[in-house]
Amino acid sequence: MNSPPTCPHFSSCSGCELSANLYNPPILKGAVAFFEKNNISFRLITDGFESTRLKAKLAVRKPSKIGLFKKGTHEVIDIPDCLVHRPSINQAAAFLRQKIIEESVPLYAEGSHSFSLRYVQLFVDRKTNRIQLTLVLNGSATTPEFDRFCKSLLSQDFWHSIWINFNPTSQNQIFGLAWNLFWGEPFLWQTLKNTEIAFHPASFSQAHLNLFERMLETIQNWIPEKTHLLELYAGVGAIGLPLAHKCERLVLVENNPFSKISFEASLKKLSPSLQKSISYHVLDASKADLSDSSAILVDPPRKGLHPDLLNALSRETNKRLIYVSCSFESFEQDCKALLHSGWKLKEAKGYLLFPGTNSIETVALLEKKSG
Question: pTM, whole model, 2 decimals?
Answer without folding.
Answer: 0.95
